[in-house]
Amino acid sequence: MGAPLLQAQIDIAAPPATVWALISDLKKMPQWSPQTRAMKLFGPLRVGAKTVNVNRRRLLVWPTSSTITAVEPERKLAFRIGANGTEWSYELEPIDGGTRVIESRRAPNGVKKISSVLVNAAMGGVPSFEVELVDGMNHTLSRLKAAAERG
C-alpha cells in the first residue's frame, strides 16, 4: 500500500532556465530545504547518479543516500531516497510571467518499514512528520522563489 502523495507548488516570476539552474545545483539544496544540511552529487547530474545527503530536524541528524531518477532540463528533477524508498521530485512548468514549480514526495510502494518505525520513535509519528514535510516543501519553494526572482 502506497503512502500519501505529499505536494506543494509555487509560481515564480522567473523563466524555467533560471529556476532549473537553482534546483539542479544539488549542492545548493541546503539553501532551499529546511531539513537538508548537505547534498553531495557524485559525477554529473544524470539518471543513475548517486548522492550522499545529511538531514537535520532539531537535534536529530541523519545521513541518507539517493539515486537520481529523472533529469529533464527545465522540466523535471527527481531522486529516490535509498533508506525509505521515497521519490522526491521538482517539476517545472512554464506559465505566463514565469514558472510553476511543484515539489512532490511519492511513495507508491509505501515507505520502508524501518523508516516508519524510526519516524514513529524519534519524530512524533508518521502523520505529524508528513505535515512537517509539506511545511518544509512550502519553505523550500518560497526560498527558491526569492532567489530566482532576485536573479
TrEMBL record:
InterPro entries: Polyketide_cyclase/dehydratase (IPR019587), START-like_dom_sf (IPR023393). This is Polyketide cyclase.
